[in-house]
Amino acid sequence: MNAKPMGCFLLFCKENRDQYKQPGRSNSDVTSLLGAEWRAMPEAEKDIYREQARQQKEEYLKSHPHPVKRKPRQQDQFMTTFKLSKRTQGISKR
Predict the structure, then answer these.
(1) pTM value?
(2) What is the pLDDT of residues 24-79, one digit of tens each?
(3) Of 15, 42, 50, 56, which one has the fewest beta carbons inside 10 Å?
């Protein structure tokens, strides 16, 4: 397994997406319908997908004992470095 493990909702979507695909229906609409079905689903049924997700995560962590964290994107770096200090908050542009 090279890719990161999927979460329980993504596993549910992967299994059920074909039921909702129709010509002319956008992917966004399909995902919205899947989300509504997920929210209405009893916890016992969700637990099946949660268990699958947990197993995938365990397998991933066994094969990747030291996973590499993603590097911040350039805009993420900018947003974390651009913070107004208390001294500059009261200064207005003229």
Answers:
(1) 0.67
(2) 999 999 999 999 999 999 999 999 999 999 999 999 988 888 877 777 776 655 55
(3) 42
- Of the candidates 2, 1, 41, the one whose C-alpha atom is nearest the C-alpha of residue 12 is 41
Q: Among residues 58, 49, 57, which one has the least CA distance to residue 16?
A: 49
**Six-digit token string for 17:** 């997406």
Angle, CA of 57, 7 and 2, to the nearest 5°: 50
Going 46 to 49 to 53 to 54, the CA torsion angle's sign is: positive
The token duo for 21 is 């695909």
What is the rounded CA–CA span in Å between residue 18 and residue 12? Answer: 11
Q: Which residue has the tokens 């994107």?
A: 73
Q: What share of the chain is helix, strand, coil (3-state, %, to 5)?
A: 65, 0, 35
